[in-house]
Design a protein that fits this description.
Largest sheet: 4 strands, antiparallel
CATH superfamily of the largest domain: Homing endonucleases
Mean pLDDT: 90
Structural class: alpha+beta
Number of strands: 11
Strand order of the largest sheet: 1-2-4-3
Order of helices and strands: EEHEEHHHEEHEEHHEEHHE
Distance between the termini: 41 Å
Radius of gyration: 21 Å
CATH architecture of the largest domain: Roll
Helix content: 25-40%
Strand content: 25-35%
Length: 242
C-alpha cells in the first residue's frame, strides 16, 4: 500500500492525501474511497509503472488540498520526514489498527508482520508499546534489513487481534488474519440452524460448514468472535459443539 501526504506547495497552501494499491486490491481502494469520498473531487483512476522489471497496475485517488489534512501532515511530517507522533496512543484506534493491517500487514502461517520499514527503530518501538499497553497484544521487534524494522504480532495474540479489528476490515483483506482464522479452535464441530428449512445440520469444522453453505469461512469465525445472536444473512445461526 502507498498512503501518502503531499505537502503544501506554492500553488496550494494545504496538504492532500493520496491512496494507492495494486489492482488486485481494488476492492479495498474503493472501500477506503467510499469513506473519504466527501474529501475528494474525482474518482479513483488506474495507474501503471515498472516494479522489479515488471509492469505494475494500480488504483489511486487523491483528496482535495484541505486544512484538516495539512494538520495531519505537520503531525506526521514535522520536519519533512515521516515519524510516529508522541500522541500515537490517542490516535491509534481499532479502526486505525485495522487499516495498518490491511495496508501494511504481511500474512504469515503463525502470527502477523506489520511492515514499518520507513520508520526509525525508536518510532517502531513506540508503536509496539501502544500495541502492548492499549491492545494487550504480544509483540516483538524484528530486524528486516539494515536500519529497517518490523513488528511481529505473536500467534498467541491473533484471536484477540481478530476480535479488535475484524469488524473494521474489508472482507477481501481478512486473509491477512489467516493464522487466526485457521487456528485449531476453528476445527471444532459446529451446528448450523437454517431458518428457511427449519433444519439443523452438524459439520466437522467451520471450513466444512462454509464450503457446504457457500459462505466465506471468515464470516462464520467473526460470527463467533462477536458473539453474534442474529441469524447470519437473516438465515443461519451457528453453534459450536463441544
Amino acid at each position: 500500500m502507498r498512503a501518502s501526504l503531499a505537502p503544501p506547495t506554492k500553488r496550494s497552501k494545504n496538504a492532500r492525501l493520496g491512496f494507492k494499491q495494486s489492482l488486485a486490491h481494488s476492492q479495498y481502494v474503493l472501500f477506503v474511497f467510499n469513506i473519504l469520498s466527501h474529501y475528494c473531487s474525482s474518482n479513483p483512476h488506474v495507474t501503471t509503472g515498472i516494479r522489479a522489471g515488471n509492469r505494475f497496475y494500480g488504483l489511486e485517488f487523491f483528496t482535495r488540498s484541505m486544512p484538516c489534512i495539512t494538520e495531519l501532515y505537520y503531525l506526521f511530517y514535522p520536519h519533512g520526514v515521516k515519524i510516529v507522533p508522541h500522541n500515537i496512543y490517542e490516535l491509534l484506534t481499532p479502526i486505525v489498527l485495522a487499516h495498518m493491517i490491511m495496508g501494511d500487514g504481511s500474512v504469515k502461517s503463525h502470527g502477523l508482520i506489520i511492515c514499518t520499514d520507513s520508520y526509525t527503530v525508536q518510532d517502531v518501538v513506540r508503536l509496539i508499546n501502544v500495541f502492548i499497553i492499549k491492545f494487550r497484544l504480544e509483540c516483538t521487534l524484528r530486524a528486516y534489513i539494515q536500519n529497517q524494522y518490523r513488528i511481529y504480532i505473536s500467534q498467541s495474540s491473533m484471536a484477540s487481534l481478530l476480535n479488535i479489528v475484524s469488524s473494521y476490515m474489508h472482507p477481501s483483506m481478512l486473509y491477512k488474519l489467516k493464522s487466526a482464522l485457521s487456528n485449531p479452535s476453528n476445527r471444532n464441530k459446529i451446528e448450523v440452524f437454517d431458518k428457511d428449512t427449519n433444519l439443523t445440520t452438524t459439520y466437522d469444522s467451520i471450513n466444512k460448514a462454509a464450503t457446504a453453505l457457500n459462505i466465506n469461512h471468515a464470516s462464520i469465525v467473526m460470527y463467533f468472535s462477536r458473539n453474534q445472536q442474529k441469524p447470519y444473512k437473516g438465515r443461519y445461526t451457528f453453534k459450536k459443539v463441544n
